[in-house]
Amino acid sequence: MITAGPTREYLDDVRYLSNASSGRMGYALATAALKKGHEVILVSGPVDMKPPQGCEFHSVETTSQMKEVCHDCFSRCDGVIAAAAVCDYKPVNRIEGKLAKTGNPISIDMIETDDVLAELGQTKNDHWIVGFALEAENARENALQKLRSKNCDWIILNNPSAIGSETNDVEILDSTGKVKVSFSGNKSDISIEILSWIEKQVS
After folding, report:
1. Residue 143 and residue 80: Cα distance in Å, rounded?
2. Mind listing the pLDDT tens digit for each residue in 160-191?
3. DSSP output for 37-74
4. What is the CATH number of the domain that holds 72?
5. 203 CB-near residues (< 8 Å, 6+ apart)
6. Is 101 among the domain residues?
7. Looking at the domain assignment, is residue 102 inside a domain?
8. Which domain holds residue 12?
């Protein structure tokens, strides 16, 4: 199972919080996995791409929807590559209709969304899990913290320049914080390298 793209959390019926993830990394991973002969479940937030032919595709919008689909599909998978850029916060209350302008400042109370990857990690049993960490400061330290808190086997570290880009620079870290391998270049090429590396680890 591969997750891709952003999620959205609505302020009212027309406005939402999200991020600039294009979904290219997740879709490239799904394409690479299919080319290698794997069965693929792709769970994707809203993106401007068509899913690769041959995958089982689930379109979602909110973080809770992604969590529900991933939970339902998890038992049918050998492992998960979580490339989605999940929205971390949502409004405490969603306003019905459209919030009107008043000319005055407003404040919106926010709470954290469900941690999709951490919940999968808590119930992974014999599954393997690869997470993604997009970090700007203390990158490896923060990525390692995410790996441990979400119970991943490995985590793929990249940086904010990857958002919306056709290229990427990644490092794969293990639970000790050691960089096992690094790749740079087009996301399609990197995806093949990542899949080949994972295959060697889980075979």
Report:
1. 17
2. 989 888 999 999 999 999 999 999 999 999 99
3. T---EEEE-S-SSPPPTTSEEEE--SHHHHHHHHHHHG
4. 3.40.50.10300
5. none
6. no
7. no
8. 2-94+109-202
Residue 99 domain-assigned (yes or no): no
Q: Is 66 exposed, middle or buried (0-12, 13-18, 19+ CB in 10 A)?
A: buried
Question: Catalytic annotation on 142?
Answer: no
The full 3-state SS of 127-139, as one line of letters, equals CEEEEEEECCCCH
**How many domains are there within the chain?**
1
Catalytic one of 19, 142, 151, 186: 19
Amino acid identity at 135: E
Pairwise CA distance, residues 101 & 106, whole Å: 9
pLDDT digits (tens, 9 = 90+) for 101-160: 999 999 999 999 999 999 999 999 999 999 999 999 999 999 999 999 999 999 999 999
> Is the pTM of the predicted complex or chain greater than 0.85?
yes
* Cβ neighbours for 29, distance < 8 A, ≥ 6 positions apart: 2, 4, 81, 83, 191, 194, 195
Q: CA-to-CA distance for 111 and 53, rounded, in angstroms?
A: 37
Encoded tokens for 148: 């441990």
Task: Specify the residue for token string 């709470």.
Answer: 111
